Amino acid sequence: MFKLKSVIRENIAKLTPYSSARDEFNGKGIFLDANENPFGELNRYPDPYQTTLKKKLSKLKGISAEKIFIGNGSDEVIDLAFRIFCTPGNDKALTFSPTYGMYDVSAAINDIELLKIPLTSYFQIDEKLLKPFLKDLSLKIIFICSPNNPSGNLLKRSTIENILANFNGIVIVDEAYIDFCKDDTCLNLLANYPNLIVCQTFSKAYGLAAARVGIGYASEEIVQLFNKVKPPYNVSELNQKAAIEALDNSEAYEENLNIILSERKKLATALEELKIVLKVYPSNANFLLVETINADVIYKDLVSQKIITRNRNNLVNNCIRISVGTPSENKKLLQALKNINL
Ligand SMILES: *Cc1c(COP(=O)(O)O)cnc(C)c1O
After folding, report:
1. Where in this chain does the record put each Aminotransferase class I/classII large domain (predicted)?
2. Is 79 close to ligand 1, i.e. is its CB under 6 Å away?
3. Is 83 in contact with 110 (CB distance < 8 Å)?
């Protein structure tokens, strides 16, 4: 059985968190407590718990605000998870490769060994390969990226549930791209699995990569741990406002989302017709993984035509990952690919 107490680092369990000046009083008043400048517009520290933003998310997702953590990008959620659950130099985490590179970097920064289990040729989890690792007591976190980056596909829900049920550590499902396939979210598993953390972000479908706002959904107990360890004012006032505005402007969000989805379909069809393209993998996200006849050469040629894609040859043989752009950007990409003679 999963016991939260047994996966928290001792020093974190014992930690007395920083108490900010505003913790005791947050109504209207004369604030002479935080050594702020009384003049200006951004002179006050922001709400450390992002109450307004959480209320809106809570309503939108049907999840209580106490189960929501806001990070400075989901990269902060990932880093905090390492710091809360993994003792440096001792514990391990696990990912399924190929996947998002930040798990690797964040694990290395925290001196945590990251185990990597290869996905199948259909980019699904091989449960037989995973099984022997589930009983390793030093394994504290399993990362599941779904839809997966760079392959673009959703991972099977039944597999995710099996892992949640059979692993006594933390399972982080990274849903950075879930807005492009909303019905497949694992958020509704939160009620059944106290070891689940679902990460989402404003960086992709909400178009706010510059603002750095990420979300972690988890049990109240886990969210309290994150609150305890995070820097007190981790999400700036400007970033909170940007996220709130994006949620209020749902029309623009839907409109852009629909354009991206219809462009993805057009782009996939057009790419498949090119001689230098061998395969376009099915995508549930806002990018396509494209197998080519020579990724290194094609990638460089595109750069010389001032079109930057992501060369994933090191992860998936001869593959390039292409984000879906605006209709005119996608047209230019296709023309540039047609210009390449191989
Ligand atoms: C883009 C991306 C993120 C987003 O990270 P932010 O820090 O929220 O910008 C998270 N996970 C994956 C797999 C991604 O591809």
Report:
1. 37-337
2. no
3. yes
